Amino acid sequence: MTERDWRPRYIQVAEDLRDQILRGELPPGSAMLSETDLSERYDLSRTSVRNAIKQLKDWGLVRSKQGQGTYVRAPRQRVERRHTERYQWEKDRARLGEPERGETGATEFDTGLDLPDLEFRAKYTIVEADDNLAGIFGVPAGTALLKREYWTSTRSEDSPLSLVRSYLLRDIVAANPDLMDEAKEPWPGGTQNQLYTLGIELETIVDRLTARPPLPEEADVLDIEVGVSVLVLHKTSIDTQGRVVEFSEVILPGDRTEIVHVTTLERWA
Amino acid sequence: MTERDWRPRYIQVAEDLRDQILRGELPPGSAMLSETDLSERYDLSRTSVRNAIKQLKDWGLVRSKQGQGTYVRAPRQRVERRHTERYQWEKDRARLGEPERGETGATEFDTGLDLPDLEFRAKYTIVEADDNLAGIFGVPAGTALLKREYWTSTRSEDSPLSLVRSYLLRDIVAANPDLMDEAKEPWPGGTQNQLYTLGIELETIVDRLTARPPLPEEADVLDIEVGVSVLVLHKTSIDTQGRVVEFSEVILPGDRTEIVHVTTLERWA
């Protein structure tokens, strides 16, 4: 710690401990020093030591177990997501035969993970559009929607990589009863193939990305501390006739997600 | 509040108050009920009431003033950012004459705000590359870098819309002394024109986006509560010869930033 650091001492201590964790000097699973020992080592009050540990928890680096002290968390598998490249890739595959569509799922493309590593759950329900969803689809509030919830995890970790809520207009989807059946998931070729079975071709996908603290139930399901942020992706899919045909909200844990976008510029030469 | 909500009461109360704020029943600037009054109205302990108010602060919706109670914050101007569209737009303008380049800045393009609404500050320093930056540029640690820090605000609000730290290799930039002078900012045409004066043409820009809680100094500068998340954009600019020529880190306040990306898909027909 430099002498001229003007920030609160507990932050400087938290950063020092973070450095030790990130450099591997405090390996995953190891116990942190007790509050008393940290207090002595850093010549800091107990309150400040508690604040420093709170900060480390908020960064998702340590975890306290009831009656067992504080431990360094195993680093979570970091996942790169390349949503925008995926959309055209998914469209290119939407008209292929099922065997080819079944070879690779969208999540594998997004994340670079292999199918045997992934666990996938889906739940379908019928809901009434609230004002917000009604506005997005341009339908009256109360219109029936098919709500599809997805959880995708790696087999090596319990907590999902993402929470997805996807909405489709029920009356449109009902034309293909297979699309109303959650047991048909994971669907080879994903949503763009599902829409293709209804004669729908996507033309534009609008992504809106924000970040916020997780809601308590999101922190619970994603197994993150409440101080870890989530990325919230709102994806609106518009067909070739300009109709909004799907809206989805994707919640991604901020401590393990990196959204990557590569822009290739036109050459001057 | 529904009877079957299984979450802690303080969260339900916080959400009820949030709804009142978002619906305008508690307008900006209005005082919240006292802890005692809230405790009575919701039949909740003082501790739970404090937790509910803490949650509202963490959402950036209320603010406590020393000795004056808790007030509803004015909603902050929300800014849509379209980074990826901007990169090609900036490149198309990089070879134009200064008058044309000076007409519109990149921030205005990104945010849709007009130049008279924006305040802009820049600070240049020379720093030594740490291991991380050395790895990004593929140079030895300790190599001299030009570090450029930017703060952009709207005139109607004090707090910046973004914090930017941009790094360039000093020995390359030094060929044009104007590029070493912070007083030349805001530079008409931005970084891509600056690089053009050095004979450098960008070909690829890699964006990596994550979310995390703000560091205390970021929360301070951006004027956000520590419970508001920040979006962190790491942008790596690569020239036509495959060299990394610029790296920047952009910190964006999560309560007012929406990163928008529109994907137009190729038609099947």
Automatic annotation (TrEMBL), chains A, B:
Family matches, as PROSITE patterns: HTH_GNTR
Boundaries of every HTH gntR-type domain copy: 7-75
Keyword Transcription regulation among record annotations: yes
Taxonomy, superkingdom: Bacteria
Signal peptide boundaries: none
CDD domains hit by this protein: WHTH_GntR (cd07377)
Keywords in alphabetical order: DNA-binding, Transcription, Transcription regulation
Entry-linked InterPro entries: Bact_HTH_transcr_reg (IPR050679), Chorismate_lyase_/UTRA_dom_sf (IPR028978), Tscrpt_reg_HTH_GntR (IPR000524), UTRA (IPR011663), WH-like_DNA-bd_sf (IPR036388), WH_DNA-bd_sf (IPR036390)
Region named Disordered: 91-110
Basic and acidic residues bias locations: 91-103
Name the UniProt record assigns to this protein: GntR family transcriptional regulator
